[in-house]
């Protein structure tokens, strides 16, 4: 590890290592530090839900943690979820992440009880790896946060199961998979108008989290956690690392450093201090991925180019260079003004100083303006007309001639 992080103080203060939940696929390496970093008081180090619970009556304490009462979530037995997924049949697998495997399942539309394959509605069932380090905490965080929050741009958690060692989560099914799938795993380029639509949806989701009465810091913003419904409306998923924001008199929370390589903000890497603006940084990294068609972190790139931000930050402030770094597959689908405005907002999101980054609400406003700006008068030079289905788009190399790769073994595309 450490090859991507060039922040000098990070290694001295945080002992980064793969945490056992690591997803070795190319969508990013998860990391965590071994211990809580430095200055946090014991109060700050408490689980986010011991704090949440003090504001909420009716939580149920279990031997290994607090689960808030979430009456609208269905509690499933393991047997029921076995039925819903045809015994976790490999051919019903939608994908795999650090938490475990995700399966397609069927439930009754009204009661959400398991139903026969083909009747009722499809759901996504996430099953925790039994050897997953940190798994219970992430599972509980997911249930507690998604059980309390509701917004059109957050994925809906329908229920969960906890039985012996088995921990599962049941979500609404997102038929178009993740932004990551479309940007990096398919052999056709993904149209600009869908890219900007998805960014706006995801920005709305984050702005909602940051604007809630007690801010929620999401902490795991990345392309694979932006899921897409049938109309490519974006929904943020995976609240395993989410934290309640600082109490009034504080500017940040102090936590163990956890996240995905390439997306974590420099101040968080260096000190464990987490701000809502750390999410804004990660959003900026996704903006850069969307512009360039390149991954936030890719160890297969030449020396000095592994970290997308470190590599391309200097290009963002120079108009003629911006043109060069844009994904070649979407050439002609956006105006130069749009590319430059995208570069500008990306640069401000990835500002090294958190206080210099914009709020998500401002980012959202800018992206909406950028969408309106994009009137491409002549589509002759475009790769293809944006009104066509993305599946009609042909393969093109990404920026800087880096070729798209097919999904590595172990990952399955969804929503084809
Ligand atoms: N609700 C859902 N509907 C459809 N597909 C889903 C759903 N949730 C997850 N998936 C798919 O399952 C796969 C694994 O998702 P998961 O969230 O477990 O891992 P990840 O985000 O890829 O990685 P990480 O664990 O590092 O966050 C992804 O390819 C995702 O597209
Ligand atoms: Mg995920």
TrEMBL record:
Stretches with biased composition (Low complexity): 18-42
Subcellular location per the Swiss-Prot or TrEMBL entry: Cell membrane
Recorded catalytic activity of this chain's protein: L-threonyl-[protein] + ATP = O-phospho-L-threonyl-[protein] + ADP + H(+); L-seryl-[protein] + ATP = O-phospho-L-seryl-[protein] + ADP + H(+)
Annotated Protein kinase domain ranges read 88-370
Query: Which residues are noted in the entry as ATP-binding?
Result: 126
Q: What is its EC number?
A: 2.7.11.1
Which keywords accompany this UniProt record?
A: ATP-binding, Cell membrane, Kinase, Membrane, Nucleotide-binding, Serine/threonine-protein kinase, Transferase
Q: Where is the composition biased (Polar residues)?
A: 49-62
From the UniProt entry, list the residue stretches annotated as the region Disordered. Answer: 1-62, 381-416
Q: What is its main location?
A: membrane
Its cellular-component GO annotations read: plasma membrane
Alphabetized InterPro entries for the sequence = Kinase-like_dom_sf (IPR011009), Plant_Ser_Thr_Prot_Kinase (IPR050823), Prot_kinase_dom (IPR000719), Protein_kinase_ATP_BS (IPR017441), Ser-Thr/Tyr_kinase_cat_dom (IPR001245), Ser/Thr_kinase_AS (IPR008271)
Q: Record's PROSITE patterns?
A: PROTEIN_KINASE_ATP, PROTEIN_KINASE_DOM, PROTEIN_KINASE_ST
Q: Which CDD domains match?
A: STKc_IRAK
Q: Which Pfam families match?
A: PK_Tyr_Ser-Thr (PF07714)
Q: Into which family does the record put it?
A: Belongs to the protein kinase superfamily.
Q: Under which name does UniProt file this protein?
A: non-specific serine/threonine protein kinase
Taxonomic lineage: Eukaryota, Viridiplantae, Streptophyta, Embryophyta, Tracheophyta
């Amino acid at each position: 590890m450490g090859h991507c992080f060039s922040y000098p103080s990070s290694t001295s203060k945080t002992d980064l290592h793969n945490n056992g939940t690591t997803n070795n696929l190319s969508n990013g390496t998860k990391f965590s530090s071994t211990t809580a970093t430095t200055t946090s008081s014991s109060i700050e180090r408490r689980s986010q839900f011991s704090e949440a619970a003090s504001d909420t009556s009716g939580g149920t304490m279990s031997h290994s943690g607090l689960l808030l009462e979430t009456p609208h979530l269905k509690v499933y037995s393991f047997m029921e979820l076995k039925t819903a997924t045809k015994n976790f049949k490999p051919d019903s697998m939608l994908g795999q992440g650090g938490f475990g495997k995700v399966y397609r399942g069927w439930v009754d539309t009204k009661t959400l009880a398991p139903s026969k394959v083909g009747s009722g509605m499809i759901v996504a069932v996430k099953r925790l790896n039994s050897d997953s380090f940190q798994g219970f905490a992430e599972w509980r965080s997911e249930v507690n946060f998604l059980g309390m929050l509701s917004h059109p741009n957050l994925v809906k958690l329908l229920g969960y199961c906890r039985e012996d060692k088995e921990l599962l989560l049941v979500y609404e099914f997102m038929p178009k998979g993740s932004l990551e799938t479309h940007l990096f795993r398919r052999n056709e380029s993904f149209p600009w108008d869908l890219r900007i639509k998805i960014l706006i949806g995801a920005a709305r989701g984050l702005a909602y989290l940051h604007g809630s009465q007690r801010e929620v810091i999401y902490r795991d913003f990345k392309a694979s956690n932006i899921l897409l419904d049938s109309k490519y409306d974006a929904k943020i998923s995976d609240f395993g690392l989410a934290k309640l924001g600082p109490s009034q008199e504080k500017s940040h929370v102090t936590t163990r450093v956890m996240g995905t390589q390439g997306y974590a903000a420099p101040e968080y890497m260096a000190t464990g201090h987490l701000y809502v603006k750390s999410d804004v940084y990660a959003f900026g990294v996704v903006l850069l991925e969307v512009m360039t068609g390149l991954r936030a972190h890719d160890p297969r790139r030449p020396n000095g180019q592994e970290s997308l931000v470190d590599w391309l930050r200097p290009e963002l402030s120079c108009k003629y260079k911006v043109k060069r770094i844009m994904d070649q597959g979407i050439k002609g689908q956006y105006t130069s003004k749009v590319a430059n405005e995208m570069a500008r907002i990306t640069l401000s999101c990835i500002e090294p100083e958190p206080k210099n980054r914009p709020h998500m609400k401002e980012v959202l406003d800018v992206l909406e303006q950028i969408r309106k700006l994009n009137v491409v008068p002549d589509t002759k030079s475009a790769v293809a007309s944006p009104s066509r289905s993305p599946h009609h788009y042909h393969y093109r190399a990404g920026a800087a001639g880096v070729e798209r790769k097919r999904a590595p073994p172990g990952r399955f595309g969804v929503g084809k």
